[in-house]
């Protein structure tokens, strides 16, 4: 599984980092991808971060 963040949509709320810290990191008030592919065992939390993103900035490719 691969995750990306649309930085133009990202508002920097940090919810994704709280939900899936193995995959996401905050840099300059925007979410960035820390690990690609998504680490084994973090797939479910990554999907949850995508679902909970208030601006739908997270894209997941299976």
Summarize this structure as a short list of keywords or feature phrases.
alpha+beta, two-stranded antiparallel sheet, two-stranded antiparallel ribbon, 62 residues
Could you explain the architecture of this structure?
With 62 residues, the protein is an alpha+beta fold. The protein has one domain: Alpha-Beta Plaits. It contains two helices and four strands. The chain has helices spanning 15-19, 43-52; strands spanning 2-5, 24-27, 30-33, 58-61. The mean pLDDT is 97.
The CATH architecture = 2-Layer Sandwich
Number of domains: 1
What is the overall number of helices? 2
Kindly estimate the percentage of residues that lie in beta strands according to DSSP.
25-35%
Tell me the CATH topology: Alpha-Beta Plaits
Question: What is the total tally of β strands?
Answer: 4
Low-confidence stretches: none
Order of helices and strands: EHEEHE
Structural class: alpha+beta
Q: For the largest beta sheet, what order do the strands appear in spatially? A: 1-4
Radius of gyration computed on alpha carbons: 10 Å
Estimate the helix proportion, in percent.
Answer: 10-25%
Q: For the report, how would you describe the main beta sheet?
A: 2 strands, antiparallel
Overall shape: it is: globular
Q: What is the CATH class designation?
A: Alpha Beta
* Overall pLDDT: 97
Termini separation = 4 Å
